[in-house]
């Protein structure tokens, strides 16, 4: 077996060939000169072969998965082709996304590591700085989600969560049927949730929503009733039980404070008035059994992600991890199957 074939087998390279290799930086880096399988020259948009117009003078370099403690880089001079449908374009690069600086394998490893460990630990395994890893992660997730559209939404849940000290909040919208996060918005309240309904959903999509669940916050209730008037709004029963427990605790405290007086149980009266106010939003639970329990379960995962990172300074960084772990798109699954190796 030749040394080039050995490298090909060792690195599990598929879809392209290694034609030469060199060690650089005191043998700390392995540079592989590669070329596409069967000469490439395919359009990145339609994958059809095109006529080669020219070969770029300057080679491009892609960062690949480190092996045996050595950084690995792929080197290739792309070619410009003339596609019958899309005109002059740079040929498709089979081992990396267009304009990417890292390979698909590196992206998959980065996403897989960050989903189960801290970014600091992932950066050590990948031998890059945490800031570089964070930038790569954000670019990758943003690229995957930029053309993503919400589809098949019929049951939604709305909640809020803090992501940083100083009372910084984010509003999160869930697909309760698929148990995933659809949207993360900066802030809380009516203005924030209105952005989701106005910017992320079309009028047709809003009409397809048949049920929604949230807590007893008026901002979310009013927003749902305004944007989805035909949807059945079900207040989360756990928040109702929480309100009852709070009322009972208050009565108990009053009894202790005024043991010699007959109490009129004002906290319980207040709770009863709350139930009466929301009666038409509580009774639908009997029919469709919709709750925010799925959203609360996802919130626990989100809090684990936040605690693992000891909080996030920006919502973008927090959103990246939410979409990576419990988002409505399998982001690592967007990497071509032959490059999903650990």
Give a structural overview.
42% of the residues lie in helices and 23% in strands. By secondary structure, it is α/β, with parallel strands linked by helices. The protein folds into two domains: 1-101, no CATH class; 155-328, no CATH class. The strands form three sheets. Strands 10-9-8-11-12 form a five-stranded mixed β-sheet, with helices on both faces. Helix 2 (104-116) runs antiparallel to helix 3 (119-126), helix 3 (119-126) crosses helix 4 (130-145) and helix 8 (237-257) packs antiparallel against helix 9 (266-277). The longest helix has 21 residues, at 237-257. The chain starts with a helix and ends in a 16-residue tail after the last helix. The model has no long low-confidence stretch (mean pLDDT 85).
Strand-helix topology:
Elements: H1 3-10, E1 16-24, E2 29-36, E3 51-55, E4 60-67, E5 70-76, E6 79-83, E7 87-90, H2 104-116, H3 119-126, H4 130-145, E8 155-164, E9 168-175, E10 180-186, H5 190-200, H6 203-208, E11 211-214, H7 218-227, E12 232-235, H8 237-257, H9 266-277, H10 279-282, H11 284-288, H12 293-308, H13 315-326
Parallel strand pairs: 2-5, 8-11, 11-12
Antiparallel strand pairs: 1-2, 3-6, 4-5, 6-7, 8-9, 9-10
